[in-house]
Amino acid sequence: SDRLLGGFRKTSDRLSDNLAGVVGTAKLDDATLDEVEDALIVSDLGPAAAARIRDRLAEKRFGLSITERELKEAVAEEIAAILRPVAVPLEVTAFPRPQVILVIGVNGSGKTTTIAKLGHWLQEDDYGVMLAAGDTFRAAAIGQLKVWADRIGAPIVTGPERGDPASVVFDAVKTATDTGIDALVVDTAGRLQNKRELMDELAKIRKVLGRLNPEAPHDVVLVLDATNGQNALSQIEIFKEVAGVTGLIMTKLDGTARGGVLVAAAEQYGLPIHAIGVGEQLDDLRPFDPDLVARVIA
Ligand code: GDP
């Protein structure tokens, strides 16, 4: 967690700095609350979460004197309160096995790396993991996933470039079932440029999956790049419609990203946040700890 804080703290400077300027007057009054709300919005928490935090602060402390340190702690507590309900780890519970985890997200979001990290994570919990290269649109995507599969020592099912993703997924589920795999992690195409095509592709994958196991896919995990700030929110919007997202993993929180968008996502969509990515290495996936993240953001 030191490492997380170390890398992540950069992302929080903005809100901290903004909050730092706020408490000049001794008492929490409307003007101060306005400034707090602005600071939250500027830091990507979004208008809804900002208003909610403002209201909570006002309820608890209006007219009372407050130091800068107390204000930050109070804001962190309200952020944590928004994040706690969405901190839901990804559990492998599917019966019959395998649990089918579709991973979606735009190219460049860190999807492939996240699949490898997630596979590695599940292996460390003693689950048998298999990968499936369902993004057949990009030859590079298949190759890259193969490299990661080798690295974590997981079997992988691939098909031909430009082949049918649904048939890759079909093969993968059959092989995973036959070989007693616990979790099948499926890469999918992230082409938002052609929403219709992507929708059809995912619908076909679902249809094939449903024929093999009515419960599948058990998870549809959207990978979001935290450095995209507010764009991450519009991606949730679109992928919710296109793919039926069941949970999120936010990557690149070690960089210059501001974690505030996590709060906006939690407030607006209430989707489970399963984990966060804090680097490019296999072990750079962290459980989503709302209290830690809240303290870092504030
Ligand atoms: P994809 O196109 O969505 O499959 O993205 P990739 O998995 O290929 O990742 C794109 C780039 O982001 C690569 O250079 C990754 O190493 C990098 N990346 C992925 N996750 C993280 C993260 O959590 N932190 C950082 N700093 N880089 C990441």
UniProtKB/TrEMBL annotation:
User: What keywords would UniProt list here?
Assistant: Cell membrane, Cytoplasm, GTP-binding, Hydrolase, Membrane, Nucleotide-binding, Receptor
A Pfam family annotated for this UniProt entry: SRP54_N
Q: Does the keyword Cell membrane apply?
A: yes
Give the CC-aspect GO terms: cytoplasm; plasma membrane
Q: Name one GO molecular function term.
A: GTP binding
The UniProt annotation places GTP binding at: 105-112, 187-191, 251-254
Q: Where is the AAA+ ATPase domain?
A: 97-248
Recorded topology in the membrane: Peripheral membrane protein
Record-linked InterPro entries: AAA+_ATPase (IPR003593), P-loop_NTPase (IPR027417), Signal_recog_particl_SRP54_hlx (IPR013822), SR_rcpt_FtsY (IPR004390), SRP/SRP_N (IPR036225), SRP54_GTPase_dom (IPR000897), SRP54_N_sf (IPR042101)
Highest taxon above the source species: Bacteria
In the record, biological process GO terms are:
SRP-dependent cotranslational protein targeting to membrane
Does the entry feature the keyword Zinc, yes or no? no
Location relative to the cell:
Cell inner membrane; Cell membrane; Cytoplasm
User: Which SUPFAM superfamilies does the record match to this protein?
Assistant: Domain of the SRP/SRP receptor G-proteins, P-loop containing nucleoside triphosphate hydrolases
Q: Give the EC number(s) under which this enzyme is classified.
A: 3.6.5.4
Q: Which reaction does it catalyse?
A: GTP + H2O = GDP + phosphate + H(+)
List residues of the SRP54-type proteins GTP-binding domain.
98-298
Subcellular location, principal: membrane
Enumerate the spans annotated as Signal recognition particle SRP54 helical bundle domain. 4-83
What NCBIfam families does this protein's entry cite?
ftsY
Summary of subunit composition and partner proteins: Part of the signal recognition particle protein translocation system, which is composed of SRP and FtsY. SRP is a ribonucleoprotein composed of Ffh and a 4.5S RNA molecule.
Q: Which HAMAP family match?
A: FtsY
Stated family = Belongs to the GTP-binding SRP family. FtsY subfamily.
Question: Tell me, what does this protein do in biology?
Answer: Involved in targeting and insertion of nascent membrane proteins into the cytoplasmic membrane. Acts as a receptor for the complex formed by the signal recognition particle (SRP) and the ribosome-nascent chain (RNC). Interaction with SRP-RNC leads to the transfer of the RNC complex to the Sec translocase for insertion into the membrane, the hydrolysis of GTP by both Ffh and FtsY, and the dissociation of the SRP-FtsY complex into the individual components.
**Record's protein name:** Signal recognition particle receptor FtsY
What is the name of the gene encoding this protein?
Answer: ftsY
